[in-house]
Amino acid sequence: MRRDVFQAIADPTRREIINLLARQNMNLNAVAENFSISRPAISKHIKILTECGLIVIKQQGRERYCEANLGQLSQVASWVKQYQTFWMSKLDALELHLSSQKKPVKQKPKHK
Predict the structure, then answer these.
(1) pTM for the whole structure
(2) For 5-70, CATH number?
(3) Residue 106 has what pLDDT?
(4) SS (H, E, C) the chain
(5) What pLDDT is recorded for position 2?
């Protein structure tokens, strides 16, 4: 079953696994050592990330190494970009509205 990349990044543990593997390839035990959850739970997260295409597992001898495949995150970036454009136009309109509403601020007289 091919999962959606948005499903993968919805979980904070999976986002942290992606962060770890973006810095360096790690075997499954090394990944698990960074978390306080069980090894089977980490394996389940790794499986989901693999099904989404965000991680590639490579066998090296007896070890299985996880490697980040961050190209899939471009789908997320594209989706976010459309809303970034939307909100920037809304903020620009708000700024324009607020600047048109500005009235001179009366300064209070200084007391001696």
Answers:
(1) 0.72
(2) 1.10.10.10
(3) 66
(4) CCCCHHHHHCCHHHHHHHHHHHHCCEEHHHHHCCCCCCHHHHHHHHHHHHHCCCEEEEEECCEEEEEECHHHHHHHHHHHHHHHHHHHHHHHHHHHHHHHHCCCCCCCCCCC
(5) 60
